Amino acid sequence: MPGAPKICFDKILPLNLRRAQRTRSAPAGRLRAIAPKDSIWVNGSRIRIRFLDGDARQRDMVRSIAPEWANHANLQFEFTQDPNAEIRVTFNEDDGAWSYIGRDNLGIPKHAATLNLGWQDQAVILHEFGHMIGLAHEHSNPEGGIVWNEAAVIRDLSGPPNFWDEDTIRHNVLEKYSADQIRGTDFDRESIMLYAFPDDWTQNTGPTHENKVLSGQDKAFVGGASMYPGAAPPEKRAAELALGKPVKAEISRRGEEDLYQLHIDTKGVYTIETSGSTDVVLALYGPSSPTRLIGEDDDGGAGFNARLVEALSPGTYFVQVRHYNPDRTGAYKLAASRR
């Protein structure tokens, strides 16, 4: 079909290429804006962004548009030439538009791009940087309610400008996340993360239109409890965790993420673990960086507790604790020890 929409495609971490994607068809129902649970950055993160190529106009366009997300999410964007930058942007017009999602960017080799802008306008820059901070396509929600006309979708995306094979089309459009993979909120047809689909692609929802700015729902979602709410008090965001001195704490509100600093003076193998009846997820970052992921665990400890065993060098590390279900709360104990 002439004029088939340009659609970005989801990038999958190399380690996930060997795993079956957990997707399922969704029953008719409410649509929701979504963010995969495992890809959210630590709340308050400073994310460094480096350009691998591009001319001055392209770079300036990104610098002026992308930080709109940071006006609403509790994140900082820093444009830098630091070779260790978490995000590397390229402008390959032969490679479409894409971005790894959220913290998945940390698993990409430092020499490789993590976000490509094969074409540039306000809509595509906001959309791809929405992926970068952890948002997925809204049509991938398990409760999306979209009944696709699969033959029409495959026909159109097989041709220009996408030229996708059927597996790619199914992954990026027709398949959906499983319910336990996402955080979500009510659907917004004005969301920057929803693409324009022609009427004959769906059997029940009708066409959608291109959105060029962040909607009110976009702004509220990324700044809300499920993603990046306003900074908590400093002692709550970065409390001290000392070796051999367990800390009693609590996830007291929806979406809360507790952050601790752990100072290591001697190289060795260390255990960081939780205890209690609350189902928490544990993540370790560092050294001296709240965005450089070292390890993450869900149920590696007793019951639903988390446990990490890592070889660490001297430095300051950051330990993040959050509830597995962002809608739930509960008490837990956190401890760190040297083996």
Widest sheet, order of strands: 1-6-7-5-3-4
The first-level CATH class of the largest domain is given as Alpha Beta
Q: Quick one: overall form?
A: globular
Order of helices and strands: EEEHEEEEHHHEHHEEEEEEEEE
* Structural class label: alpha/beta
Mean pLDDT: 80
Query: CATH superfamily of the largest domain, please?
Result: Collagenase (Catalytic Domain)
By DSSP, the count of extended strands is 17
Percent of residues in beta strands: 25-35%
Largest sheet, if any? 6 strands, mixed
Which range best describes the helical content: under 10%, 10-25%, 25-40%, 40-55%, 55-70% or over 70%? 10-25%
| N/C terminus separation | 63 Å
Question: What is the CATH architecture descriptor of the largest domain?
Answer: 3-Layer(aba) Sandwich
- Seen as an oligomer or otherwise, the chain set is single chain
> Which segments are poorly predicted (pLDDT under 50) over 5 or more consecutive residues?
12-34, 177-185, 231-236
CATH domain topology of the largest domain:
Collagenase (Catalytic Domain)
Describe this entry's structure for a reader.
The chain is an alpha/beta fold and 339 residues long. It has 2 domains: 9-222, 3-Layer(aba) Sandwich (Collagenase (Catalytic Domain)), CATH 3.40.390.10; 234-338, Jelly Rolls. 14% of the residues lie in helices and 27% in strands. It has 6 helices and 17 strands. The strands form 4 sheets. The protein has a 6-stranded mixed β-sheet with strand order 1-6-7-5-3-4. A 5-stranded mixed β-sheet has the order 9-11-16-13-14. α3 crosses α4 (166-174). The longest helix is centred in the middle third of the chain and has 11 residues, at 122-132. The chain is globular. The chain starts with 8 loop residues before the first strand and ends with a strand. 39% of the residues are buried.
